[in-house]
Fold these 2 entries.
Entry 1:
Amino acid sequence: MNLPIVAYGHPTLKKVAAEIDADYPGLNDLIANMFETMYSSSGVGLAAPQVNYSIRLFIVDGTVMVDDFPELAEFKKVFINPTILEDRGEDKKAEEGCLSIPHIREVVERPDIVRIEYYDEKWQYHDEVFEGMAARIIQHEYDHLEGILFVEKISPLRKTIISRKLREISAGNVDVEYRMIFPSKKNLK
Ligand SMILES: [Zn+2]
């Protein structure tokens, strides 16, 4: 089932998400629905707050970009209760987008290597290091659990330039192929 994606300006995107237990109700269905939602909106990552669940869960599948980024070969994963333990390596700049902020792409600077501990969908514990585009996708999705959006990490000048577009997105004045929940409409949860 496709879930609606909350748009920029929605309060759920600004919350620090809560950890969950293995008996969190409907977790397997939620994960399956998040994958379906991510694929039908052509995303490579999706965090639970983006579908209006303020819990520490995100999914990724970057395998579609493996030709450009070999590090994404096996990069289809579920991250539950993740903690970034360490980031290192050079800061690298690359363009990012976000399903909650349609049609906006901006250059974001992030460390190239990240070490993260997390549980997968079978509640197996992992402590792993990711590099390159995998590290970037993880940091973008992890930020969602902390209530941080990539547009908060761009230069003040770029922020000013896109501020009107961001207001239009919050107001629902944006064309998207997927269902969204806009903060200024009545469907605000
Ligand atoms: Zn995002």
Note: The CA atoms of residues 83 and 117 lie 5 Å apart.
Entry 2:
Amino acid sequence: MTNIADDYLEPHYIQRSNWLRASVLGANDGILSTASLAIGVAAASDFREPIILATVAGLVAGALSMAAGEYVSVSSQTDVEKADIDREKQELLDMPDIELVRLAEIYEKRGLKKETALTVAKELTAHDALGSHIRDELGINDVSQAKPMQAALASGASFTVGGILPLIVAIFLPLQNMEYYLYGFAIIFLILLGTIAAKTGGSSVTKAIIRITFWGTVAMGLTALVGYLFGVSVG
Ligand SMILES: [Zn+2]
């Protein structure tokens, strides 16, 4: 039997949020840290090779550390969720009556009358006690459940996609004023990304663009300064 509501279901922003957040964060980081690195070296060197070398090294190191960091942090979240679920399982065995009352109280707080809440709690407990407690008491559901490998791959891949853009600039654009090409293209890529993220996430595009342009300029500007000062001191 088809569920009529499903035909009209528009996916909510929250369902996109997990992979979106990881992907945008990764790509943002890829563009900004790789472009900053390339700008720093371009400000200190008159040759293309060191710029390309630094950009490739930054891209590989950044993608791997991003993926590893995301994997470790999401795995620890998975560990916490698993420990909570195991404890919940035990509590349902040890004190089913108290757990039933606890579930009913949760539904009451959500607005159900006391009797209705208890009826719902009884029926859901009879249907799937652990599932109901995991979802309604612990707040763990399919959308929010941590998936370490998925998150790590999304972060590593999006960092790589982001970082490849400044690399293309470093390889193909004229060496003269390379810092400005790297900065200009990085800001364009960041604005595009910020716009996509804001539109997909249902938030303000203008705010996203101002935020990303400001912090992008600060990061790349400071790295260029360091590279320039370094270039002067060794030149
Ligand atoms: Zn419980």
Note: Residues 139 and 223 are 43 Å apart (CA to CA).
